[in-house]
Specification:
Largest sheet: 8 strands, mixed
Bound molecules: 4-amino-1,4-dioxobutan-2-aminium adenosine-5'-monophosphate, magnesium ion
Strand order of the largest sheet: 6-10-11-16-15-14-13-12
Helix content: 25-40%
Structural class: alpha+beta
Length: 461
């Protein structure tokens, strides 16, 4: 007998006989002649109501059907007598599959997110996390759909790499050397030529450089995979392991890149609104009352665009007392980004043309020699969700940038070759998948939109 998921049962068009339901007990109420169970299997937010008659074989097991236990029920799907649901299941057979004793940590009362983080192996069974991870799955699918519909080729960038794309030194080393007794060079330093890959290697911070290789061959490509940053940031928006989507487009300048980023973000919101309607309504009710109006507003309005220089001007004239002073050439801090998106523009805004000194070596230098064709997309409530740029396609300028950043021409020879053989203007960006999920669900902490969070000091589970 084939299993019927709760979501399918609840959406049934007509009554059905002999369906098999398998799931976990949320609640049980016993009356004299029968028991009511609510069964959830994670296929949707709602559970299916089940009536088990006391005369049924197997009813002697009913006391074992406690919250958290797993059960298997065969029955008839019939129109529900009760309110709030269309269908209910009248059991014809009932069995407990796995018991859950009274220590089961998800009881009816509400739990704090902090507590749920400590039971990351059980929290997917809660309404909130079930909804978060269904939306995460759907958006992963929508990401592929968006790019495949536009003839982008999916490229798998390596996880282990020898390059530091962002040049921020936030790298996790990958090594098999014995930390107690590493081989050393005559000068006493660790000799990484004897390491597993015969050189220093790291977990990737970005698949961009490899994506550029493929864009300069297959034209439009994207990566979608895990990235790692050993950044000691203790915020609600930084994780040490997160997923990034990085499109890279040949023959494309910064304008086209900004257009694609806007289209992409709107596409994902629209997809979630359509395919995760019940879960988003749940977030709108229990997580963030303004979520749905905000998402709809974002869909309707064109994103604003503003240069870094204009942004500095707006911030300086705001009359605010900034914790971090505002001046041309300084990095924008979270307080500045949020002011721009939440108070000044009141909608997503793409900042572009940042000071050259603030950005990595690969960005295209503008005619002024002082700024580069960088772009950051800021959204209300979160700040930066996308970072990208037009890439430097001129060999001489790239080499000069690399000298300024003290990068080895030998290590990056393959990257430089892209400018030697048929170089083209090209652009791309990275969308932080978890930040996008925070935006779409209203969930305020990045630890709660990734199955098992890795942050400084924490790698449990
Ligand atoms: O701005 P970033 O560092 O850009 C890059 O890595 C480029 N190589 C992307 C490209 O042009 N292909 O990172 C891109 C995005 C950020 O906007 C943010 O959404 C996310 O990745 N991100 C993080 N998300 C969670 N935790 C962190 N520690 C993050 N660091 C960046
Ligand atoms: Mg960035």
């Amino acid at each position: 007998m084939q299993r019927t998921l709760v979501s399918h049962a609840l959406n049934a068009a007509s009554p059905m006989d002999g369906i098999l339901l398998q799931g976990w007990v949320r609640t049980r109420r016993d009356a004299k002649a029968f028991s009511f169970l609510e069964i959830n299997d994670g296929s949707c937010l709602k559970g299916l109501q089940v009536i088990v008659d006391a005369s049924l074989p197997g009813y002697d097991q009913i006391a074992r059907a406690t919250t958290g236990s797993s059960v298997e029920i065969v029955g008839r799907l019939v129109p529900s007598q009760g309110q709030g649901q269309k269908w209910e299941l009248v059991a014809t057979s009932f069995a407990v599959v796995g018991d859950a004793d009274s220590t089961y940590p998800l009881q009816k009362k509400g739990h704090t997110l902090e507590f749920l983080r400590e039971i990351a192996h059980i929290r997917p069974r809660s309404n909130l996390f079930g909804a978060v991870f269904r939306v995460r799955s759907r958006l992963a699918y929508a990401i592929h759909q968006f790019f495949q519909e536009r003839s982008f080729v999916y490229v798998h960038a390596p996880i282990i790499t020898a390059s530091d794309c962002e040049g921020a030194g936030e790298l996790f080393r990958v090594t098999t050397l014995d930390p107690k007794n590493p081989p050393t060079s005559p000068d006493g330093s660790v000799d990484f030529s004897q390491d597993f890959f015969a050189k220093k290697t790291y977990l990737t911070v970005s698949g961009q450089l490899e994506a550029e290789v493929f864009a300069c061959a297959l034209s439009n490509v994207y990566t979608f995979g895990p990235t790692f940053r050993a950044e000691n940031s203790h915020t609600s928006r930084h994780a040490s392991e997160f997923w990034m989507i990085e499109p890279e487009i040949a023959f494309c300048a910064l304008d086209g890149n900004m257009d694609l980023a806007e289209e992409f973000v709107k596409y994902l919101i629209r997809d979630a609104r359509k395919h995760c309607a019940a879960d988003l309504e749940f977030f709108g009710k229990f997580v963030d009352k303004d979520l749905l109006p905000r998402l709809d507003f974002v869909l309707e309005r064109p994103f604003q665009r503003c240069t870094y220089t204009e942004a500095i001007d707006i911030l300086s004239r705001s009359g605010r007392n900034w914790e971090h002073p505002v001046s041309w050439g300084a990095n924008l801090q979270s307080e500045h980004e949020r002011y721009l998106a939440e108070e000044h523009f009141k909608c997503p805004v793409t900042l572009y043309n940042y000071p050259r000194t603030l950005k990595p070596f690969y960005m295209r230098v503008n005619e002024d020699g002082k700024t580069v064709r960088a772009m950051d997309l800021l959204v209300p409530g979160i700040g930066e969700i996308i970072g990208g740029s037009q890439r430097e396609e001129r060999l001489d300028v790239l080499l000069e940038n690399m000298r300024q950043h003290q990068l080895s021409e030998k290590e990056y020879a393959w990257y430089i070759d892209l400018r030697r053989y048929g170089s083209v203007p090209h652009s791309g960006f990275g969308l932080g998948f978890e930040r996008m999920l925070m935006f779409v669900t209203g969930v305020a902490n990045i630890r709660d939109v990734i199955p098992f969070a890795r942050t400084p000091g924490t790698a449990g589970f």
